[in-house]
Amino acid sequence: MKDAIRVDADTVRVPPARLRLAEALESQKDRLLPCVHCGFCLPACPTYNRLGDEADSPRGRLHLMGAVVEGRLDPASDAFQTHIDRCLGCRACEPVCPSGVEYGVLLEAARETAVEARKPGILSRLLLTIMASPALRGPFFFGGRVLRATGLADLAVRLLPSRGLMGSGRMAMAMLAATKSWIPPVASDSAAGPGEDSDHPGHRGTVGILLGCVQQGLYDRVNKATARTLEANGYRVVEVRGQGCCGALHAHAGSLQGARDLARSNMDAFESAGVDFVVSNAAGCGAAMKDYHVLFETDASRAPAAAAFSERVRDVTELLAEAGPLPGAEVKCAVAYDHPCHLLHAQGVARPPIQVLEAVPGVEVRVVEGAEECCGGAGIYGLTHPELGGSIGRDKVAAVTRAGATVACSANPGCMMQIGAGLRLDGASQPIIHPVELLDESYKRAGIYK
Ligand code: SF4
Ligand code: SF4
Q: Residues near ligand 2 with C-beta < 6 Å?
């Protein structure tokens, strides 16, 4: 293990222009102060556990951030760029920190500082542009669905080599192939889904569902299952026009301004819809929206609305668990459940997804060994860091396989794609599903939907 972090070697006379680039981090410097360098967070960190380098630990990264804020380290230096980039953003370091260091907020500021000092790669910039634009997102995901439906994605997984640039392409195709439905659509799929205001009395409140970008593009069935199961449990689901991407990918990639622009549109859209709850079925999106208040904390004109919006955000499993949820018919299977980091660590939601699964008669829930550790998905980390992301992903897939279940399950599209791809590349046949899909199937079999 390399214990000492060597900022000195990178300590140069930092040009004033570069120091100005550190403004995002400078504005968060008070959030660095609570760190007492105790190191309790180190064993929770997947990158530190695998690389054994203090600079790849939460404490080491906080140290690098502090050095940039104090002008001792150039934000364009390899030390800052490499170790900040290598962080998964899984936030496993937050709940174990006795001082309550808000690592996620600091990481986003550090990423903004890093990308201002050195432009990010073309893949990252291209994806952010596509996700922010509905006009580009539509054709992008349509192409993905065509590759999935025609079996070309499966074919590419079989034909492409596993290393180099082609290896990243093979991984991307495996992720796409993993988004296939676990069960053929049945007639009740035509029941009310998001976008069709129901006349349901909704005694538990009115909800608007964030449709998301990846979720809407590749997992529309999860959005529909979300609407149906919420309605069956006493919520009224209404359409929210004008909503878009939540901005999580932008914030994690260092484009806080891009994230703010998207957040503004979403806040306006959900406000106009007059909902009691803003519901997400993607852990990353839910975590981002619960943090909108941080995005606007220095904007006096938006801060109160952002705080009120964040208060209303719920993961779908939180609302369903609060309602019971209503049991349906038997679906006999064993489910290997893996916690998404942005549900467990960022939102502190551990039991609700399991309660949703346990509400289905015949289901045996097996929480995956090491379920609290990241799967290596982390946005496009598996593509941009094939070796480290691949090693973290292989450990996760091995744990899912050891659970010996019929289906794998997680509550975030990125994790579903990463674990599903790993299972495919391993030759395993388990599908991976979202918890609401199983509850939805149980309700269909019980004839709960009219
Ligand atoms: S982030 Fe928290 S747990 Fe980690 S070294 Fe700092 S105070 Fe300790
Ligand atoms: S967010 Fe995850 S990878 Fe990054 S420092 Fe924290 S525990 Fe490590």
A: 44-47, 58, 61, 87-93, 103
3-state secondary structure (DSSP) of residue 314: strand
Residues 6+ apart with CB under 8 A from 143: none
Domain ranges of the chain: 13-117, 326-446
What are the backbone angles phi and psi of residue 81, rounded to the nearest 5°? -60, -50
Fold of 13-117: Fumarate Reductase Iron-sulfur Protein; Chain B, domain 2 (1.10.1060)
- Is 130 strand, coil or helix? helix
Q: Is 97 in the pocket of ligand 1 (CB under 6 A)?
A: yes
Among protein residues, the one with the nearest Cα to ligand 2's atom 4 is 87
Task: Look up the pTM and report it.
Answer: 0.88
Let me know if domain 326-446 sits in CATH 3.40.50: yes
pLDDT of 266 higher than 80: yes
| Contact assessment for residue 431 and residue 407, using Cβ atoms and an 8 Å cutoff | yes
**Is the CB of 95 inside a 6 Å radius of any atom of ligand 1?**
no
The per-residue pLDDT for 193 is 45
Q: How far is the CA of 16 from the centre of ligand 2 (A)?
A: 30
